[in-house]
Every structure is written in structure tokens, then in C-alpha cells.
Amino acid sequence: MSESQIYELTNRFFNGVTRIGEDPKNPIKQCFKGNVAVDWFLQNTTASTRQEAVFLAQMIMHKKAFISVEKNRPFKDKSWVYQFTEASTEGRVLITHDKETLYY
Questions:
Q1: Which regions of 1-104 does DSSP assign to beta strands (E)?
Q2: Which single residue of 2, 43, 63, 73 has CA 20 to 30 Å from 99?
Q3: What's the whole-model pTM score?
């Protein structure tokens, strides 16, 4: 998958995935559950298995678009909570080119 395809997928995911914390009484902002993200990838991409959907989410996580709320947890198809990073909430995605880090 090219960098531009990852960028496009990240934007679609950011704008489409159901978040927890949209309730004003809930202090967690810009968060979603891993299993909900997998469902989104299955419904909105060419992923045909949960394993393929997890792979797509892991690619986006690797680009620093979101992080685990609990430190150092990898992306899993579980009800673990993940949070979009500041870069992704501002419409930027981390892209690396030969040791150079760029935000788009």
C-alpha cells in the first residue's frame, strides 16, 4: 500500500469510525475500541477477514495516527481503547521517508 493510500485510508477511518467518549459526560475524547475499528475496516475497505482488518489498523497505528490509551499496547481486535493523536485530529498523518518525518 502506498503512502498516499495509507493517508487516504487514515482520513476515512478518522472520519468514519464510531468513537466512545462522544457523550459530554465521558472525559475520554477521540477514542475508539479496537474491535469497533475492525468492524469499520471490514465494512469500509477491501479487508475480508478480521485478521486483514487488524493488519490495516496496525499500519495506521504505526504511522502514529492513534495510540493505545494503555501504554505500549499493540493494536488488537479487542475492546481495548485507542485514541487518535493530535496529528490525526488536525488532519495530519505521520509519514516517514528515509529517516525524515513529515506531517501531512
A1: 31-33, 66-68, 81-84, 94-97, 100-103
A2: 73
A3: 0.77
